[in-house]
Each structure stands twice: as structure tokens, then as C-alpha cells.
Amino acid sequence: MDSYLWIPFVCVLYFFAADGEGAVTGPDVLVTNGTRDLRLTCVVANSSSVDRYAWFTPLPNTNRCVKSSDGTECTFTPTLEDDTKNVTCRALDSNSFTLAVATYTVNLKYPPQVPPVITQKKEIKCTVAGGKPLVMNVTFHCQTHLFPDEEDHVSNETRTVSSLITEANATSLNCACFAYWAPEPGLYPDISYMRVDLKKFLRDTSSTASWVGAGATVFVAAILSICAIQGC
């Protein structure tokens, strides 16, 4: 009769999971034009067990971190597309098992990416689009004075209409437009210019002109519209 030798076999399963006791610290918000660095720090409760840190920046390129010598810090230059996306830090032991995972959500403030746009159709319009947040106000002025104010301002509005007083013999206007971006005005210094053929503008738009005095001034019912909201 055959005999069998039974050898006991024991299967042991090891489960490794992140304990979650970690955090990524950094600024609440980064004001940038797309060229400023963001520095983050990975903090783990039981750092004595950590062998190394792995950092992952937002897609599509997850390997943009310049790490400090001990790996706890990550410095990279976020693009505007990185706004609201996560940076992840993983603390690993000597066997590459994850001890902790922490994330940081990128929060950017950035100015408009294009200069103000002046257009001339039925109205002369200056548009400032984009930015986070939007610009607080837009200043749009021409060679002569606006009436009743010297400048039009937009503050939490989408449109401002003004009249224009110019010299009776004026044939053109040199218009300029710029905007104030509150978080850091110096990041949006752009100024746009346009030379307007005043007589052609009045003829094409059927605007009315009424004489005031003996050839001194002419009141032009030209509309200067200012738009400071994306998509208008």
C-alpha cells in the first residue's frame, strides 16, 4: 500500500496600506502669470519609518518636481492649466510600500492672458477677457475728454455708456484702453491703442452731431462701450 507524506503548507497574506497620517503644506493661493514657482512640503507623522518621498504633479507631466535633498520638498512651476488640480506626495519605506499619501490642490490667481481688445463697429468697444479673478475695472479714454467724467470705469458691471466731446475740426481720435487687476496690478500692464476715424465712424453708425457755440465744439453721440467680463 502506497504511503503519502503530507507536508503542511501555510499561506500568509500581508496587506500594506497607507495610514493617511500625512499632509502637504503650501500657500493657500499662488498669484502668478505662469512663471512663478510653487514650493510644497510633505509632512508625515512617523517620518522615522520613511525611506523616500515620491511626488506627482498634475497631468500630463507628473514629474515636474525639483526635490530637496531629503525629498520632503517639491518645487515646480505650475501652468495656468494646473489650477484646481492636485499634487500628490507618497511616503515610502525601504521596501517601497506606501506609508502615507497626501495631496495638495493648486489654487492660482492669474491675470488676463491677452491685452485689451478695442473694436470699432457700431460702437467703440474695449474688451478685457479672462483672468482669475476678472479685472476690477477698465479705463478707456480717447484723445479728448469724456463727458461727464474723464474716464469710464467698470466695477462689477458689464457695460458703461458715455458721450464724447471733441474739437469741432477733429477728424480722428487716439483711444487707449487698460485694466486694473487687483491681486497684483503689475502682472497686467498691457495697454491697447486704436486710432478712430471720427467722421467715418459717425457716417457709418448714423450717429448724430449737434453744434454747441460758434464752431467751438461739437457734441458727438458716439458710444464708448466697455466690457470687462469674459465672453461678452
From TrEMBL:
Give the source's domain of life in one word.
Eukaryota
- List UniProt keywords, sorted A-Z: Membrane, Signal, Transmembrane, Transmembrane helix
Note the InterPro entries from the entry: Ig-like_dom (IPR007110), Ig-like_dom_sf (IPR036179), Ig-like_fold (IPR013783)
Signal peptide boundaries: 1-22
Domain (Ig-like): residue spans on this chain: 8-105
Q: Where are the transmembrane segments?
A: 209-229
The record's PROSITE patterns line, in alphabetical order, gives:
IG_LIKE
Any idea what this protein is called? Ig-like domain-containing protein
Q: Which organism is it from?
A: Littorina saxatilis
